[in-house]
Batch of 2 targets.
Target 1
Amino acid sequence: MGVVVPLGEKNDGGRASLQPLLDLVAPDMERINETILSHAQSHVDMIPQLAGHLINSGGKRLRPMLTLATSRMFGYEGEHHIPLATAVEFMHTATLLHDDVVDESDWRRGKKAARLIWGNQASVLVGDYLLGQAFKMMVETGILEALRILSNAAAIIAEGEVLQLAAQNDVSTTEDAYMEVIDAKTAALFSAAAELGAVVAKRPREEQEALVSYGRNLGIAFQLVDDALDYAGESDKLGKATGDDFREGKITLPVVLSYRRGSGEERAFWKRVMEKGEQREGDLEQALEIMNRHDAITGTMERARHYGAIARDAMAWFPQSGPRDALMEAVDFCIARVS
Amino acid sequence: MGVVVPLGEKNDGGRASLQPLLDLVAPDMERINETILSHAQSHVDMIPQLAGHLINSGGKRLRPMLTLATSRMFGYEGEHHIPLATAVEFMHTATLLHDDVVDESDWRRGKKAARLIWGNQASVLVGDYLLGQAFKMMVETGILEALRILSNAAAIIAEGEVLQLAAQNDVSTTEDAYMEVIDAKTAALFSAAAELGAVVAKRPREEQEALVSYGRNLGIAFQLVDDALDYAGESDKLGKATGDDFREGKITLPVVLSYRRGSGEERAFWKRVMEKGEQREGDLEQALEIMNRHDAITGTMERARHYGAIARDAMAWFPQSGPRDALMEAVDFCIARVS
């Protein structure tokens, strides 16, 4: 298929790594795992079973990590970052469960989607259960500002999902309209997760806002890279088969760019495969050829780097420290991630 | 079909009415309607369309009424009961949307189910949106105790829904197991709605607990009457076709009682129509005959009156007042409702 995704690099030219961030949050992450397991318990067997399937399915838990790492950056010594970070992960997991039902997805992170094992019904209801648990955990912290941030994120995420559904399969979606969707459905939770660090540590508003900007732009970059990898990645490394978005007729930035930059004939191709859903043998290869011809994947990566740079600059505003540098390197890692 | 449901009566022997409660909350209810409309707004058209379909579909809004009426009973003069009662209604509406998807229902209150018009996907996502809005509204009041109550209710409701799904179609469900389901999926929100009145008015714990008991038992009675009416009601008055639960293979108390009280042959009938879902012409009539033979519907109504009596006694603990009496009469109305 021959599409080369340029890797992100650290400022010193070395390969970006998530390791400094992982090391920073490792002790807290243990506690998050315990909190996740204890709050996904229920005497209704299906709940821990289904939740466990998703929770143990190898996600990086990047979102809760943001809450933990930003708390650490401020030297926060309290306990509230643990339930809040867990609530963030539960909100994310609930969204995945509902997304799989809405998208009729068969796979999630290289594992069979929960809906295929337990059914759509259980996926909807266990998603609701996890949202309820998330909400309870936040409330128990008693931090109203954290509640404001997370309830706001929940409403924005859901609105973004509906927006995406309404624009579904429309290949003439503009780049701006697409950005609006991912700003809501992906970036809002990254932003909230990062902001919470400043909230628990009671930092001034300008620091809180810097974290909002960091999280939001990192989230956008992360989603765009995800979109690019769906066409350019290696299936086995990603836990996601190349071409999943294509097969589901999901409009992402590589398609938006290909359609806008393409010829009349190419546009007819996109309309057939994405809007009408008429896909034949060889269509994915042709899609990749068209994308290559118009630099749609490298274009998507360029956009991702743009947002990544904004995230780095938002973080650069803080005084140099180990945690700050780990958070900055995480941006490069997200852009470079192929493993 | 010849099943007679005994009507509830007021203590003075007259017909119970919801009118005193409706009159009590009428001015606040106007504000609830405005709050509902303004919070179901979005530039994503599908959200106000779908939410409007459900919100305007003629529900009695009994749950928010409980918050309003209990607040009034304490002479509460503030503003917080409005967003809290609206949040209760949004939580309820979100549950209905998700329920219809899970149950594959075609009708809701005599109108086409939203999922048939906008699709299952939109129903899942707009449900999430309404939950997010509910959460935002509660957080804006800044009353942590109210947040604790409603987040707890959200988790319990979702757990009850999963429990119901797991027990689905099992005709040998015990009465206790069935009661556990409705205690969670229906009574928890009634209970929370009533309790909020004591919370906004900052009443002592014992009064709060009396309202928990009132709401919970009213909710159970309400659900049991609903179950009975599905077999004994008149379709056009209910906005729900007689036999809906039967056709969907939903196990409710009339079925639980009929199965437990029935002969081997009758049990085989229930297994065929409810568990295997093999329904033929005349099966609903036969189901009603079996129910009649074993007093399963009158038995369900007896249980409902038991819980109704507990609700009345919980309320009787408060000094006599117009609002208190309206709340007590509402119990009788719920048991008597055929209109």
Target 2
Amino acid sequence: MINQLVANIKKTGAPIVVGLDPMLGYVPQHIQKRAYEEYGETLEGAAEAIWQFNKAIVDTTYDLIPAVKPQIAMYEQFGIPGLAAFKKTVDYCKEKGLVVIGDVKRGDIGSTSGAYAVAHLGRVQVGNKTYVPFDEDFATVNPYFGSDGVDPFLKVCKEEKKGIFLLVKTSNPSSGEIQDRLVDKRPLYELIGEMVAAWGGDLMGEEYSYVGAVVGATYPEMGKTLRKIMPKTYILVPGYGAQGGKGKDLVHFFNEDGLGAIVNSSRGIIAAYKQEKYAKYGEAAFAEASRAAVEDMAADIRGALEHI
Amino acid sequence: MINQLVANIKKTGAPIVVGLDPMLGYVPQHIQKRAYEEYGETLEGAAEAIWQFNKAIVDTTYDLIPAVKPQIAMYEQFGIPGLAAFKKTVDYCKEKGLVVIGDVKRGDIGSTSGAYAVAHLGRVQVGNKTYVPFDEDFATVNPYFGSDGVDPFLKVCKEEKKGIFLLVKTSNPSSGEIQDRLVDKRPLYELIGEMVAAWGGDLMGEEYSYVGAVVGATYPEMGKTLRKIMPKTYILVPGYGAQGGKGKDLVHFFNEDGLGAIVNSSRGIIAAYKQEKYAKYGEAAFAEASRAAVEDMAADIRGALEHI
């Protein structure tokens, strides 16, 4: 699946991923109204609203982008109906030819990680039949448990030719409280970066490993170091736009071939119509505003990469 | 809710929690058969089987135990129907007067952690209505993101009088790869233990904080140190039984009042009928075997605590 991701990036010329993290506050009133008319102001109604919102954005942007990254927490907060909307979104994006990165940040001790790996990337046996529960292409994984929490994901990735992105340095302000602590005079995230590179060594696609890393756009200097530590690792870079990252800060997350990183924007794209810059589209044409924001983001990063 | 947990522990005299982690392999054939007859060999069939299995164990043990800990991964692997069985299990256990610890190990950057906190402990707004999505009493949380990933959980705990258990030292063999790394000459888990004690300081119940910690039974010496670092923190101790922990190893996880820790066993109880020790019950009386295993575990820990 890493090969598919790289192919999609080359085809679109846009190393970007759209974060489908639909807070209800982002969903235009007319979509919410229609959903509540059909299902009431219920969890089902909320789930329908975020699904229709996602669908409109995907329909309007899928030809420009290689991948999407639905954040499962935003669906989980609407209970079972919300998770059904997550699944519907995953399936629909795959139909549209997009690579789907399930931003699930799961991770646990061995046997439990195995169940999460099956849930999100693998297949589960019921009697004599097998099923694909959520069936994303990639999942984000928390490395805090060490190798026996990661191994079951590696096993499923190998079987299913899928991938994971392990959290190395997260984009939030307080990530340093644990991740930057010095171990043998080096920050913990560097050691985790080395572990990621080692885990990925046995799971190589054509150019890059099935095992990627998450490194926040908000920490460009660390991105530069981690790029060197993990040369064959695809880096998923959250934190562009709303969290403060800009294209020019991100060049060192990439390799000299212009590959090796994929930059996520969520709010900055899916709620673009709320920004002054895209206000002319209005709430009715929210998806067109998202398309314009995708084009601007791709141009910003392409421009920065010309100076690599 | 920490007060309720302590009250339940005092009432039952059993500082134990039953891990409802139903792998299909644990579910007796007659239960699987009945579920598949009704729903086919489908995800719905698997979900029905684990729900009936859980219900029988809860019905047969609830008077002996203060709490249960369903591990959501085991349900998530059966997709949406599996998660519906998780919710049904949570609701049923609460009806039976049990405290429910959702073993979800969620955690993310601020706004996303907020959505997880709402999903598992809080309430979500849809139009003018509010809903409780999963509504556990406690949730386990991964601290890797630092304080801004934990704060949204603390906020919801305060509003809803619920609690969390933060991962400090996990029970698996490779937990040391990251958690034991020396920072300022002390293992990382000690620093996280200090953070947990600080986070919990503002959220005190009558005797203990709403903010607990997970420390594996498999590391008793570390439990002793962490007990001192976090005197007002309830410690959830996984790894008893099948993972190797014994009652006598666990005394230092407790305070001198015999409180302060709650020990989890999953497989050792829910799949007791598969052990030689409880084989006389047979597969048909699997729930009675679980009851016997609960009684033995409670006696083992009570015995150990007499020598505290």
